[in-house]
Amino acid sequence: xxxxxxxxxxxxxxxxxxxxxxxxxxxxxxxxxxxxxxxxxxxxxxxxxxxxxxxxxxxxxxxxxxxxxxxxxxxxxxxxxxxxxxxxxxxxxxxxxxxxxxxxxxxxxxxxxxxxxxxxxxxxxxxxxxxxxxxxxxxxxxxxxxxxxxxxxxxxxxxxxxxxxxxxxxxxxxxxxxxxxxxxxxxxxxxxxxxxxxxxxxxxxxxxxxxxxxxxxxxxxxxxxxxxxxxxxxxxxxxxxxxxxxxxxxxxxxxxxxxxxxxxxxxxxxxxxxxxxxxxxxxxxxxxxxxxxxxxxxxxxxxxxxxxxxx
Length: 311
Description:
This protein has about 300 residues and is α/β, with parallel strands linked by helices. The protein folds into two domains: about 5-205 and about 270-305, TIM Barrel; about 205-265, no CATH class. The protein has helices at about 20-25, 45-55, 70-85, 100-105, 110-125, 155-165, 180-185, 205-220, 225-230, 235-245, 250-255, 260-265, 270-285, 295-305, and strands at about 5-10, 30-35, 60, 65, 90-95, 150, 165-170, 195-200, 265-270, 290-295. It has an eight-stranded parallel barrel with strand order 1-2-3-5-6-7-8-10, surrounded by six helices. α2 links the parallel β2 and β3. α1 crosses α2 (about 45-55), α5 (about 110-125) runs parallel beside α6 and α8 (about 205-220) crosses α11.
């Protein structure tokens, strides 16, 4: 079965008004609904609403951070959603970023690889109904332990996902960088998933360029994403943009965002062109594209259906 995902929550639509759009997505063939967690709703609440509005779609956190929540609370939230969705839940976790963890939440962003690894070990024990080394035990473990997917951009985290996870979730990935990511997954077990979030901006270049430049410059200047792009070999291409952002010149940073990388990463154009581009990523190794359609609320349902997986 071809898996096809949609990002929740849907931009510009109140949580209590998303049920019809979520049902339309499921009817259009979307198999998965994966939440984001940045400065909007948390990663769990939109999935709880979606669980009540859907029948078969898998619900995943894509992703929630291991620094902002302790492992026991993560286990409780995951078990609750697994129970409330009839076992349709998958837990995506990650280190998040220094900007979110240290900047916004004032939590030291230290040893992210170790923190993720230790959290996976804790969750595996908790989901199995065991008492963890901290003395915690779930009152009602999930009937089936939910899959654990790790947010992973570069080598060590990708290899940790292979060693301990059921999948890896990448983001803001240019097509030219996909082979380098895939080669880190050598030896992955059968059924291992590679998820990627795709930002879909319909329209011609002159229509989407301002927003695309803003999004690219605001994301790729975050230290973990800047390191990702340098790891992919694009350090020189993003240097001017990162320097402008560091100097708090947001306008110049957007102007300096390299268009060739923007085109390589965003999904642009007509629905037909966007489908062709996503198919290139799938052919290169992405097993689950998770789409973020970006348009006005009144056109969102139509765009969701147009970007569905098709027959």
